[in-house]
Design a protein that fits this description.
The chain has 461 residues and is mainly α. The protein has 23 helices and six strands. It folds into three domains: 121 residues, MgtE N-terminal domain-like (MgtE N-terminal fold, Alpha Horseshoe), CATH 1.25.60; 109 residues, CBS-domain; 177 residues, SLC41 divalent cation transporters, integral membrane domain (Tetracycline Repressor, domain 2, Orthogonal Bundle). It is elongated.
Length: 461
Amino acid sequence: MLNTLYLPELREMLANDDQQQLSEFCSTLHPARTAEYMEGLEAEESWRVLKTTDVATCIDIFTYFPREKQIDMLENLDRKEMAKLVADLPPDERVDLLAEVDPEVVEEVLPLMPAVERRDILRLQSYEEDTAGRVMTTEVARLSENLSIAEVQDRFRAWGENPEILETVYYLYVVDDDDHLRGVVSFREIAFAALVTHQKDKRIRDLMQPNVISVRVDQDQEEVARVFADHDLLALPVVDQRNRLIGIVTHDDVIDVVREEAVEDAHLSGGIQPLENGYLQTKLLSLAWKRVIWLTILFFAALLTATALNGYEPIMAQHVWLVMFIPLVISSGGNSGNQSATLVITALNNEDVHLHDWKRIIFREIMMGLLLGGALSGAALIVVWVMVQLGFAPPLAIFDSIVVPFTVFSVVIAGTLTGAILPLFFRRLGLDPALMSNPFVACVMDILGICIYMSIAQLVL
């Protein structure tokens, strides 16, 4: 919701060109709150406000702007000023932003940027989407293994003049002359050696911890997030195939990754191709295309259900009351299958289970099917009796009345097995288990449910 609390005052200060008041506005509040109060301003007005403050504060506020506003500023404001703004952004932030800007604008902006930042952008853009290389920052504090404690203290003083680097100093990574990652050392260990034990001549290689947890630059971002969770890290070094340190992934980047992956899995579980942008930012035609793919697949799969029903027309014509309980039967199978699929997909993504656990998974789902099927079949028996008593179904012989409960029992077992096996099968093929969406499982169970229901009816009636 748009926050207009300071909007009149901001526009008045802009009209009066009161740069001192605008600068105080930018520096007084937290950057996130400042950005929130500026949401009602146009792109040109927002930039006029940001230009009144220092570079660091300007960047902090800009990063909290909604993505669509950032893109609007880059595409419609002065190219030279926008090139300088982008160059001052954190490396991973500017790459993510430029990926969503009009390619023609990017081609105009890049040549206006300093050569170092331009090369860094092109290098990060060369990495595959959804990999550690695309979410890492190249601003990383590294120390040569040959430095002494005294020399490290001098390095700290130099870093004090570059706060952008200090903001990413969670750990100090030790490298050799060729930038190969050799170890990690903490501020506390260095301070203890310098101030307590007075070992200023001691080399970093003698102080560091040699076993460093790292990720490869081409490693999937979901695996990176998992490493963070498993080891409770604040930052994670990123290395290339030769174990050379090329960047770090920070905890705030991982939060974005986790949210992105959660949204993607939610879309897939609903039978929707994941959106690249926000819901309101996605064009209608693009949104329709992403939805129609699975809808078309499910549409033709539903035709199989109709075909299956057509094959059992004689038994349904003879016992019309069977049609009344079709929704109950197929929904029982579909719902139990969806539950199993959700549990197995979540367990696979969290690495609670692996493919080699398939026997245990299937055994548990069989047992779960027996328990759930027993409970629901008992409920189905009561429903059949009530509907007969109320006159919604014709009087049934005792033997006939077990058709629906026994079918529900069988369908629930089939549903739990289907919901467990299909995600495992997709993982075995190297695909995302979340592709086995709930609508797809429900569609499979519709067909199976009809076949099981009518087959039992033919045997019993």
